[in-house]
Write a structure and sequence with these properties.
eight-stranded parallel beta sheet, two-stranded parallel sheet, binds 5'-deoxyadenosine, alpha/beta, TIM Barrel, globular, 11% strand, 15 helices
Length: 351
C-alpha cells in the first residue's frame, strides 16, 4: 500500500467511504488469518518501572502509585488459569523492572514451558541483548515492544534522557529480537499530543518495513499524574493537523495495519475498549483485528497497573471475562482460537 493512500484513509471523514476500508480490512483478515480469535492471557507481573515516559502512569516519578511485584507462585497460578480457560498463550508484562532479573525471568519461562503447553510472550521493556537471548533460550516465543511513534523528535520528547538512559532506537531492538528467533510485536499510540497525520502514515509504513508478526495499537489516554497531561491541554485547539485520540482514528489505524501486514496478529486492545466498553472489542474484530487479550492479573494488583486511568475490565476476573467473551465472539460470527495461535507471518518466514 502506498503512503499516499494510507494518508488519505487516515484523513478520510466520510463514514460511507470508511465502510469500504472496514470491509477491505475484514476480508483481508478472513483471507490471511481466518475466523479464529486468539486469546492471550495477560499477566501484569510488576508495576515497578525505572523509566520516565511522559505519558505512562507507571513512570518512576509517579510517587502516588503503590508498587507491587508478583511472586513466582502467583505468576504460575495465573498461567494455570490460562490453561484452564483454554487460552494458547500467556503474556508476561511489566514496567522496566531491574528486579525482574535475567535469571528470574529465565527460570519462570522454563517452568511455564515445562508445566504447560502455553506459548510465552514477554513484554518487559527495553532489555539488554543478553537478557533477551537468555529468555529465548529458556523457551520464550514472542516479544512485544511498541516503538510508540516513528517521529524521532516526538519520541525523544516523550522519553527524556535521564542518568544512565538515552532514548534508544527500538526498531534496532526489534531487529535483535527477530535475529534471536522471537515472533516480534510492536505498535504505537494514536493521538499523542503533537502527533500529526504524517507521523501515523510513517508509523504504518514502518510496520510494513519491519514485517511485524504482531501489531498492537490503541488511543493515547491522558493520565493526570504524568507531565504530558499538564503540558498539553486536550484537545489542542490551534493545531488542525493534530491526530485525535479517538475511537474512529483507532479503527482506521487497525484496519490499515491489517492491509500493510496482512498476516499479522492484531489485538483489539484494552485501550480501545476503554473508549468504548460496550462494543470496542467487537468493532475492532470486524475491522482488522483477530486477537483479544483477557486480563488474568489478580484483581488486587490489576487496579495498580495503571498505565492510564479507567482501564476497561479492571474489576472483572479472568473467568468472568472469558464467559462473556465466548458469547460476544459468537454474536459476530467468530470463534475462540484453538492452539497457540502463532503468527502465520512468522511461520511463513521460517519455512
Ligand atoms: N495511554 C495509552 N496507552 C498507553 N501506554 C502507556 N501509557 C499509555 C497511555 N497513557 C501504552 C504504551 C505501552 C503499552 C504497554 O501501553 O504504548 O507500550
Amino acid at each position: 500500500m502506498h503512503r499516499d493512500e494510507i494518508l488519505a484513509w487516515l484523513c478520510e471523514g466520510d463514514l460511507a467511504r470508511l465502510g469500504d476500508l472496514w470491509q477491505l480490512a475484514d476480508r483481508t483478515r478472513q483471507h490471511y488469518v481466518g475466523g479464529e480469535v486468539h486469546l492471550r492471557g495477560l499477566v501484569e507481573i510488576s508495576n515497578h518501572c525505572v523509566r520516565w515516559c511522559g505519558y505512562c502512569g507507571l513512570r518512576a516519578g509517579n510517587h502516588s502509585l503503590h508498587r507491587y511485584r508478583m511472586t513466582d507462585g502467583e505468576i504460575l497460578a495465573c498461567t494455570r488459569e490460562a490453561v484452564e480457560l483454554g487460552y494458547g498463550t500467556v503474556v508476561l508484562q511489566a514496567g522496566e523492572d531491574p528486579e525482574l532479573t535475567r535469571d528470574r525471568i529465565a527460570g519462570m519461562v522454563s517452568r511455564i514451558k515445562a508445566e504447560t503447553p502455553l506459548a510465552v510472550t514477554l513484554s518487559l521493556g527495553e532489555r539488554e541483548d543478553g537478557d533477551l537471548a537468555a529468555w529465548r533460550e529458556a523457551g520464550a516465543d514472542r516479544y512485544l515492544l511498541r516503538f510508540e511513534t516513528s517521529n524521532r523528535a516526538l519520541y525523544e520528547q516523550l522519553h527524556p534522557p535521564r542518568t544512565g538512559y538515552r532514548p534508544t532506537d527500538r526498531t534496532a531492538i526489534l531487529g535483535a529480537l527477530r535475529r534471536l528467533g522471537y515472533e516480534i510485536g510492536s505498535g504505537v499510540m494514536i493521538g499523542l499530543p503533537g502527533q500529526i497525520y504524517d507521523d501515523l502514515a510513517d508509523d504504518l509504513m514502518c510496520f510494513g518495513r519491519l514485517g511485524l508478526d504482531m501489531i498492537g495499537v490503541g488511543p493515547y489516554l491522558r493520565h493526570p499524574q504524568t507531565p504530558l497531561a499538564d503540558r498539553h491541554r486536550w484537545p489542542p485547539a490551534s493545531n488542525v493537523e493534530q491526530v485525535p485520540a479517538s475511537e474512529l482514528m483507532t479503527y482506521k489505524v487497525m484496519a490499515l495495519a491489517r492491509l500493510v501486514c496482512p498476516r499479522a496478529n492484531i489485538p483489539a486492545t484494552t485501550a480501545l475498549a476503554t473508549l468504548n466498553p460496550r462494543e470496542g472489542h467487537e468493532l475492532g474484530l470486524v475491522r482488522g483485528a483477530n486477537v483479544v487479550m483477557p486480563n488474568l492479573t489478580p484483581p488486587r494488583y490489576r487496579a495498580l497497573y495503571e498505565i492510564y486511568p479507567g482501564r476497561a475490565g479492571e474489576a472483572e476476573t479472568g473467568e468472568a471475562c472469558c464467559r462473556g467473551l465466548d458469547q460476544r465472539l459468537r454474536a459476530i460470527g467468530r470463534r475462540p482460537g484453538r492452539g497457540r495461535g502463532d503468527s502465520s507471518n512468522y511461520q511463513m518466514r521460517r519455512s
